[in-house]
Design goal:
This protein has 250 residues and is mainly alpha-helical. The chain has one domain. Helix content is 46%, strand content 9%. It is built from 9 helices and 5 strands; from the N terminus they run H-H-E-E-H-H-H-E-E-E-H-H-H-H. The strands form 2 sheets. A 3-stranded antiparallel beta sheet has the order 2-1-4. A two-stranded parallel sheet has the order 3-5. The protein is globular. It starts with 15 loop residues before the first helix and ends with a helix.
Length: 250
C-alpha cells in the first residue's frame, strides 16, 4: 500500500464524530498557546542544535517520518535528527515487536548505547530536545501537547481490538504513558495509559501531565547520564489491571 500524508490506515479508523468532540476548544487553545510560547523561548536552542547536528553529521538536521495520528490518518512528523543518515531500521522494528510479544518493559535500543546515534544524539533523545520541532505538528493540528505516542507505520499491526481506541485522540508530545514510567512499562501498560487518557481526558489531567513532564525529562536525562538501572513500575504480574490504572491516574 502506498502511504502518503492523506492516507488513512484502514483498520485504525475510529469514529470521526467522537474524535472531533474529543479535541475540545480548551485543548486546542492550550496547544496553540503552549506551542507558540515554547517556540519563541526555545528558538535559539533549536537553532543551536540544528547547527550542532550539521557539524557532527553533515546532512539534513530535521528528520521527517510518517506516523499514524487521529483516526488512523498518516501525517509527517518533524524531529531533530539524532541518527546517522540512511541507517537500517529493521533491527529496531524487530526489537519493538519482540518487546510487545514478550510483555517486557519497552526499553529502547539506545538505552545503553546505539551505534546509529550521532554524537550527542542520546542526550538529545533522553532530554526530549529532539522532539521540539513537533511543536510545528501541534500548530498544524496534527498533534496535541498531550496525547498517546504517535506510532510509526511498522507498528500499526500491533494495535488491535480495544487498543485502537488510542487513535481516537490526537497523538501528543507528552502523555500519561511518558510521565507514568515510559520505558519501564510494558506494551500493554502503555496501551492502558493511552486509552485511559483518551477516554478520561479533561483540563486537570492535561495540565497535570504538562506540569509533570519537565521533571520527568530531567530525571530521564540524569539517569541516562549516570547509565544506572531505573526503578521499575509495577508489572502486570504484580498489579491487577484496575490497580495499575489507579496508579498511573494518580
Amino acid at each position: 500500500m502506498q502511504v502518503n500524508s492523506a492516507t488513512r490506515i484502514p483498520h485504525m479508523q475510529t469514529d470521526t464524530t467522537e474524535s472531533y468532540f474529543r479535541h475540545p476548544v480548551w485543548e486546542r487553545t492550550l496547544d496553540y498557546s503552549i506551542s507558540v510560547l515554547t517556540l519563541l523561548l526555545l528558538l535559539p536552542l533549536i537553532l543551536a542544535v540544528i547547527i550542532l547536528v550539521k557539524i557532527v553529521s553533515p546532512g539534513p538536521a530535521i528528520f521527517k517520518q510518517r506516523r499514524i495520528g487521529l483516526n488512523g490518518k498518516v501525517f509527517m512528523i518533524y524531529k531533530l535528527r539524532t541518527m546517522h543518515l540512511n541507517v537500517c531500521t529493521k533491527d529496531h522494528e524487530h526489537h519493538f515487536l519482540n518487546l510487545i510479544h514478550s510483555n517486557r518493559p519497552m526499553v529502547k535500543m539506545d538505552a545503553t548505547g546505539d551505534a546509529r546515534l550521532i554524537t550527542f544524539g542520546r542526550f538529545l533523545r533522553t532530554s526530549g530536545i529532539d522532539e521540539l520541532p513537533q511543536l510545528i505538528n501541534v500548530l498544524k493540528g496534527q498533534m496535541s501537547i498531550v496525547g498517546p505516542r504517535p506510532c510509526v507505520l511498522s507498528e500499526c499491526e500491533a494495535f488491535t481490538g480495544g487498543a485502537k481506541l488510542r487513535f481516537n485522540a490526537l497523538p501528543g508530545l507528552t502523555g500519561l504513558w511518558q510521565v507514568s514510567g515510559k520505558n519501564d512499562l510494558t506494551f500493554d501498560q502503555m496501551i492502558d495509559c493511552d486509552i485511559q487518557y483518551t477516554l478520561r481526558k479533561n483540563l486537570a489531567m492535561y495540565l497535570g501531565i504538562v506540569i509533570k513532564t519537565p521533571s520527568v525529562l530531567l530525571k530521564q536525562t540524569w539517569r541516562a547520564r549516570r547509565n544506572s538501572p531505573v526503578e521499575s513500575m509495577p508489572t502486570p504480574q504484580s498489579l491487577s489491571q484496575s490497580q495499575f490504572a489507579e496508579k498511573v491516574a494518580s
